[in-house]
Design a protein that fits this description.
By secondary structure, this protein is of the alpha+beta class. It contains seven helices and four strands; from the N terminus they run αβααβββαααα. Helix content is 40%, strand content 8%.
């Protein structure tokens, strides 16, 4: 009689399970080690940087980074910066960590914010992999904030 769970099948399931946040169950995104090394506090670094960290961007989840294989989790108080994904409505938490753009600054500058950031990125002036908790370029998040703020402005004028 054959087993429905051969060794190969179980291994695949275990790998898939490692993608999901142990706190909220959302699928995390891979983050380079350099991002954690740059953003963890001294106490966080002392706990060790895991080999395959993932980011949980769920706003109401206390976990920011995790690696289920180790297992280890890092919460926002173990980072040197607040995480925009955890504070979407906070106008003072950076959206663009390289150039200091917050939702408030984006609202003040309007569409020029994304154009300014794009020009800086094209000039090679960004350091997203070490400044942004997501470890990637912020332009997608900046565009989302611009759309949200634009919709709020339209709704307010009605």
């Amino acid at each position: 009689m054959s087993s429905c769970c051969s060794d190969d099948n179980c291994r695949v399931e275990a790998e898939s399970a490692s993608e999901f946040c142990p706190s909220c169950g959302s699928k995390g995104t891979s983050v380079d080690l350099i991002t954690l090394k740059a953003l963890l506090t001294a106490d966080g670094l002392r706990r060790g940087v895991p080999p395959a960290p993932r980011l949980c961007a769920t706003a109401d989840c206390p976990v920011v980074y995790f690696d289920n294989a180790v297992p280890i989790v890092f919460r926002e108080y173990e980072l040197t910066v607040p995480v925009h994904a955890k504070h979407l409505d906070d106008v003072l938490v950076p959206v663009c960590y390289c150039f200091g753009y917050t939702p408030r600054k984006i609202r003040e500058e309007g569409e020029i914010a994304s154009k300014t950031i794009t020009a800086e990125v094209k000039a090679g002036h960004c350091a997203c992999e070490v400044k942004n908790p997501k470890g990637v370029c912020c332009l997608g998040d900046v565009a989302k904030v611009e759309r949200r703020l634009g919709a709020e402005l339209v709704a307010a004028t009605r």
